[in-house]
Write a structure and sequence with these properties.
The complex is a heterodimer. Chain A is α/β, with parallel strands linked by helices. Chain A contains 4 helices and 10 strands; from the N terminus they run ββββαβαβββαββα. Chain A has helices spanning 58-74, 85-93, 129-133, 155-158, and strands at 7-9, 12-16, 22-28, 45-56, 77-81, 102-103, 105-112, 118-124, 140-141, 148-151. In chain B, α7 packs antiparallel against α8 (177-196) and α9 crosses α11. The chains are: A alpha/beta, B alpha/beta.
Amino acid sequence: MTAAMPEARGRMTVVTEGDGHLVIGSALDETSGLLDLLGRAANKKLVLDLAGVTFINSLGVRDWIRMQAAATKAGVHVEMRQVSEPVVHQLNMIVATRGTGAVTSFFAPYACDACGREESRLVDAVANADALVRMEAPPMACPECGQPMAFNDFPERFFSFLATS
Amino acid sequence: MPGDDRSPLAFGESILIVHPDRKTQRTVQRILGITGYRIDIADDLEQALRLLVHAQPVLIVVDGAAVLGDHAAAFFAAAKARSVDACMTLLGGPVVEHVPKLLGLGAVTNLLVHPMPVLAEALTITAHKLIRRDLFGVEKYLLWGTELHAMTLTRASQRADHVARVGEHVRLLGQSARVASMAMLVSDELLSNAVHNAPVDAAGGAYRRDAARDTEIELDAQHQVHMRWGCDARYLAIEVTDTWGTLDRDTILDALARTDVRESGGGAGMGVALAYRSCDHLVFNLAPGVRTQVIAMIDVRYPASERVPASSYNIFVERAP
């Protein structure tokens, strides 16, 4: 089986997976043309995997907000999977970026008190919904020493994007 | 030296501290005492207003909570009338929630939110810059020997490459992906502002403000943007300088105070607002009509969970000699 070739849209990359979900990578900025992605929605649903997004600037944010607004207007549900920390940062700073879609999983910062390892860990937002509503970070074990890792931000700040998504 | 004929004490120059807590008064007094200036202390703004009648401090340091009280407007007006525009505020953890209201005053040009001992560093640097009127340069914020990397934008399209290089370099220095991401965001916004918002024509019109950001523009010597960055294991600091000097104090305060950035993310000034929310300390050095320099600092010492969940800022304006 051959992997799908990434499509370059400015500095952003897009890979369409077999089930139709889009894997977005690299930078979201003025060259990304995010609105066009809505045309890839299937059955009024657009699934975006955002694990590979390392950077968004204010023009990328503006484009993202327009895409979310257009999705809402067109009745397209946007599911965001594996949302990277830079995207979470924007979702927390700017309410309008959240749109009416849903975040099903996201990366969050953890640190190990025992060995000092810092890592961005994937959090299942659906399975941990109850704890996240209480602003409690799910427990994680350090992949290096096995000790419990501590959440490495202020929960009230980092999880605030889940309030309306 | 104090007692020396050339010392500030000999000229009766002073610094005024306004804070209700005796211990904090003493701490700030010790920090600022090293400037050689007489330190006057007031417990509240009412008392400070009375002191202002008889003194002309070079610097006023005010507790952030006090700034939100009933006498704030009268106090800032009195300070401005006495030509003291360097009102600083200190905010501790519990009062960080007041930052939006404080920004809304549109009068606080220096806000320091660090806990001790970082506060002492920031307070000392701020005081020295104001007192010595020596404002420019990221070196003032970094430890001796810190290597600074420099780049100049000669074409607008180089912005993306420069930003990517900063991100890669920060990672090579051993910093986390999060720090690299913040550094890229801040660099991009500051460079974009300098290329597109700083240049003005003879009538003061910003002729590149509405140009598409992905349009190629050759930048001559006047339009080139200079960038430096370095990391001293305390801060990653990014400095961006243009040679226009068009950014002004009120525009910055408006941008920092914007609440619609959070709601909609729209409009002009978003770049400054996002940069402020993406770093730990944002410094504006302004020489009107000559140059604007913005320095963003990202704290790499402490994990995010151990820092104050708000950012500091300074707005320094160079005065004519």
